[in-house]
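Whether sequence alone determines local backbone shape is best considered at the level of individual chains. When preparing material for the folding task, we compiled for one chain both its residues and its backbone structure tokens. The sequence in question and its structure tokens are set out directly beneath this paragraph.
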Amino acid sequence: MFIINGRETGLSIMDIRMIRLFLFAVLFGIVTGCGKEEPASQAIVKPATPLAVESIVTVGESSGREGTSTLTVPGGAVFHQGELAGVYVVDGEDRLTVRWVRTGRTVNGSVVILGGLDAGERIVGRYNRSLREGALVKEQVSETKEIQSNE
């Protein structure tokens, strides 16, 4: 028997210590476990066979009138998710990574990139809904067949 706040309880000192230890462990687990989970929507897909993409292009750079450089990408490479604009960057291992970019005006079918990419980076040239972050890609080889005419 133990007296708490002037009342007798059926708990011994050892029982109270075990309860305190249990509460501490639960509270510690709750506090340290918060915020360490990856969002489910960002699951990385790594298929065994590479996905064929229409083209892989290099981020272009052109010089402006006042010595400033401008980065451009094909308009079809940029996709939108709500207010965000993004492109799929192809890394050295041919895996895709989503890169959110800040876009400017469109000039002759190319979008000016104000931020988020560097000149020379490789990106997917035309967005495709089936692409996912972490996917392995390869550039699709298109064959052009010539038809000979006997005329």
User: Anything to note?
Assistant: The chain is about 15% helix and 35% strand.
